[in-house]
Amino acid sequence: MTHWYNYLLFYLWIAPHLVLLAVAIFLLKQRLFSEFPMFVLYTWYEIAEFLLLFTIAISRLNHGSWYLHTYLVTLAISTALRFGVIQEIFNHIFCEHGPVDALARTSLRWITVALLLVAVGCAILTSPQSFGNLFAGAAWIGRGIAIIQCGLLLFLFLFSSLFGIALQSYVFGIALGFGILSSVELVQWALSTTDLSPSMARALNLLPTAGYHVAVVLWLVYLLVPAKQILQPSIVPAEGPGVGIDGWNSELERFLQ
Amino acid sequence: MTMTVYLYICLAALLATTFVFLALRRRKSVIGLDQARSLMDSLDLAAFRNLIDPEEEAFLQSRLPADQFRKIKRERTWAALAYVRDLSRIALEFSRFAHAVQTSSDPRLAELGRQMAYGAVSLRLLALQATGRLFVAATFPALSPRRPDSLLDQYARSTGLVMRYGMLESAQKRAA
Question: Which residue of B has its CA nearest to A184?
Answer without folding.
Answer: B12
